[in-house]
Amino acid sequence: MTVNKIITDNIIKLIEGANISDFESPFQSLSLAGEQKSLATGNAYTGINQLITLLSAVNNRYTSSKWGTLKQFTKLNKRIRKEELKNSTCITFYKTLTKEDDSGNESSFPMLRYYRVYNEAQTEGYEMPKSNPNITREYAPAIDKLVKSHNVKLLTGDIACYSPNDDTVTMPDFAEFCETSDKTTKENYYSTLLHELTHWTGHSSRLNRDFGTTFKSQKYAREELVAEVGAVFLSLEYGVAGKNLNNHGAYLKGWLQLLKSDPKAIFNAVRDAKKAFSFLAEKEFSADIAA
To answer: Do 78 and 206 share a structural domain?
Structure first.
């Protein structure tokens, strides 16, 4: 067994120890959603379906925890917006069936199906939960200076994202963020910004990383690993890491399959994250920041 494989196995074990339900969204609206639930039963999804719907909610910034099929929403006189009909999320249904033969002997076999579901936020007339307009804006001068010194095009919008085509970073308003068990509102805002700034370093005019074009593709997943590891390094450097890194582990669990299929993935991600750190902080990466 190679050293890469041994270390990767240990990292995977740590990430696997994080429950996806432990992930706390730093956004006010998403934090109100909580566990993702079935519209039909009202029960929280379990296993892979909780992971699938939570990742979809985070990626698309859905602000409701309720999911249902087209038919289920129709029964409640709710219509999926026309432009959202193509944006369904696939979940699985697994059940063990038994069959009796002519001799009376029973045998079991698995039945696996998939269903296309929609989030309540995709329905007509849905209103997003209101954030706290009275929240006091807090600043991290060193990070604000970093953004200004690199001439980052920082926009305000509904989601946190980096657009390689426009070379812009978009962040929700500070009031859209909230306190979680591991971070203050300020720490959540700036650690999210640092994640997007790490993406920003990958532009072809800078460190030239391959972003991938499809959500959850291998290239996309690799870039997410780089951005999240980079955000950890930068958050420690600029004092916005919070009490612990549990939320980072819960988020990275969504990209665990890449680590399992490529023992070198975490090493490559750390290497590229160090380069992103050095580019943004304009200093060489030092392991002392993790002490």
So the answer is: no
In a domain, 22, yes or no: no
Per-residue model confidence (pLDDT) at position 55: 72
CB-CB contact of 79 with 123 (8 Å):
yes
pLDDT attached to residue 14: 45
- If asked whether residues 145 and 278 sit together in one domain, one would say yes
DSSP state of 27: B
State the pLDDT at residue 270. Answer: 85
pLDDT along the chain (291 residues), means of 10: 52 53 59 73 82 75 88 95 91 78 77 86 84 78 96 89 93 86 89 96 96 73 87 90 65 64 80 94 65 36
Cα–Cα distance, 90 to 116 (Å, whole number): 5
Answer yes or no: is 27 within a domain.
no
- Would you give the DSSP letter of residue 278? H
Look at residue 170 and give its three-state secondary structure. strand
Domain count, the chain: 2
Residue 275 is predicted with a pLDDT of: 95
For position 254, what pLDDT does the model report?
59
The residues, ordered by sequence, that sit 6+ positions from 54 with a Cβ below 8 Å of its Cβ are 20, 21, 23, 36
206 and 261 housed in the same domain? yes
Distances, alpha carbon 120 to alpha carbons 32, 67, 115, 146, 281, in Å:
14, 6, 16, 38, 41
Same domain? For 106 and 162 the reply is no
Identify the CA nearest to 136 among candidates 180, 175, 181, 183: 175
> Residue 80, Cβ neighbours under 10 Å: how many?
21
Q: What is the per-residue pLDDT for 35?
A: 76
Give pLDDT, residue 180.
83
Q: Give the domain-ending residue among 58, 90, 122.
A: 122
Query: Does the residue 145 lie in any domain?
Result: yes
* Structural domain containing residue 41: 33-122
Q: Is residue 134 part of a domain?
A: no
